[in-house]
Design goal:
- The chain is built from 18 helices and 7 strands.
- It is mainly alpha-helical.
- It folds into 3 domains: about 110 residues, DNA polymerase, domain 1 (Orthogonal Bundle); about 160 residues, Orthogonal Bundle (hpI Integrase, Chain A); about 90 residues, 434 Repressor (Amino-terminal Domain).
- The strands form 3 sheets. It has a 3-stranded antiparallel beta sheet, with no helix packed on it. A two-stranded antiparallel ribbon has the order 1-2.
- A hairpin with a 4-residue loop joins strand 3 and strand 4.
């Protein structure tokens, strides 16, 4: 049975749930419960979250929550109930335990099974192999953005999405090349009754001191970090200057990875690669220094290569702008039947088709930078066009 658009959207937004704060996952969990249980049950779950669970465990990363920590919470709740409430009953204690476990199970189900292995009762992420690390580094070099900087910091420093989203430039010491990791970004219930938003994002200190740490980053990332380093500002900022939350970061990175034909590369796997000691710095050094082979054809006019590369990227580029094949046919003037054959690879692209497609994506703000980074509009082609226009 095919998934609906709603289901697909939901799947994309629930990737890496185990890496998120409990408060963030609980929001998705409640939304799913609304369609499967009675309204009174949903209200009770919301009460349990607001009164007992989120104030004590909301900022904790789901995958790090242990049975011991759950039992400690329940023990403390039995001794000291929230102000204005009666002593917590035994049934409420059981309900709190059940809700926390249900949220954790939900997070596990939302994780991508294709990049995980099960070892006993523990779920682990598979580190990237050498080929995947190389492709990620190449994508990061040719797509210089806060999103891909976050990818590199996860791969070579082990930072998680909440930590990346909460990272302030003041936490980075460019002289010693060290990052002080002490904050995380969490999504909590919005208590402003006048606001239309049910939740809000907050940067808070990491709850467990054992996870507060200082990590070093490779010198190859010096220039990359400097491009986005502004004292007093969040390191990961969007084009409008606003901070970048975990969802936005993940969605942006998924789009970039899709364009570069990278599949099943998640932040969990990136961090797992670092933790396993498999983040090969030689790969990073070769790609980001003069030892790396530069993108081919920048100064050479090679129509065959350009046609082949554009054909390979047609579907990804179209998805980035959110248009159908029929829409692309309309804006480029290529008959829809011909365009479908081009995208499927069953028909060889002609030069006039290439140029029509090139200029549509080159002058679309969502793909303009990507076109340059993929080398689809090299200087040699620009010079060729100038000569033809002058002639």
């Amino acid at each position: 049975m095919q998934k609906s658009d709603k289901d697909i959207h939901k799947t994309n937004n629930t990737t890496d749930m185990l890496e998120r704060a409990l408060s963030d996952v609980a929001e998705h969990w409640i939304e799913e419960k609304k369609g499967t249980v009675a309204e009174s049950s949903v209200d009770r779950y919301c009460m349990l979250l607001e009164c007992y669970i989120l104030p004590n465990m909301g900022s904790m990363i789901v995958k790090d929550i242990t049975e011991h920590e759950i039992e400690e919470l329940l023990k403390n709740l039995s001794k000291d109930s929230p102000k204005g409430m009666n002593v917590i009953s035994g049934s409420t204690v059981m309900s709190v335990r059940s809700a926390i476990r249900s949220i954790i199970i939900y997070a596990r189900k939302c994780s991508e099974p294709s990049v995980e292995q099960t070892e006993g009762s523990r779920t682990i992420s598979v580190p990237l192999n050498t080929d995947e690390i190389t492709k990620v580094c190449v994508a990061a070099k040719h797509n210089c953005s806060p999103d891909m900087l976050a990818v590199l910091l996860s791969l070579y420093c082990g930072l998680k999405t909440g930590e990346l989203a909460a990272l302030n430039c003041d936490d980075i010491n460019p002289i010693t090349r060290q990052i002080h990791v002490h904050n995380t970004m969490v999504r909590v219930k919005n208590r402003d009754k006048e606001s239309n938003k049910k939740t809000e994002l907050k940067v808070i200190e990491i709850s467990r001191k054992t996870q507060i740490r200082t990590v070093g980053y490779p010198e190859e990332l010096d220039d990359y970090i400097k491009k986005f380093y502004v004292e007093g500002k969040m390191l990961l900022r969007q084009g409008d200057g606003l901070f970048m939350d975990q969802r936005t970061l993940q969605n942006h990175v998924e789009q970039i990875f899709q364009l570069y034909k990278l599949k099943n590369i998640t932040f969990r796997r990136l961090a797992a690669t670092y933790q396993a000691g498999m983040a090969d710095r030689k790969i990073l050094r070769d790609i980001f220094t003069s030892n790396a082979r530069k993108r081919p054809y920048d100064h050479e006019f090679d129509p065959k290569w350009l046609l082949r590369e554009m054909t390979n990227d047609l579907a990804s580029l179209r998805l980035l702008v959110g248009l159908s094949k029929e829409d692309i046919s309309d804006v480029t003037g290529i008959p829809v039947a011909e365009y479908k054959q081009l995208e499927s690879g069953s028909e060889q692209m002609k030069w006039d088709q290439f140029m029509a497609i090139l200029f549509f994506y080159k002058y679309n703000e969502k793909t303009a930078r990507i076109i340059d980074q993929l080398g689809l509009y090299p200087e040699a082609l620009q010079e060729q066009i100038k000569l033809e226009s002058a002639g």
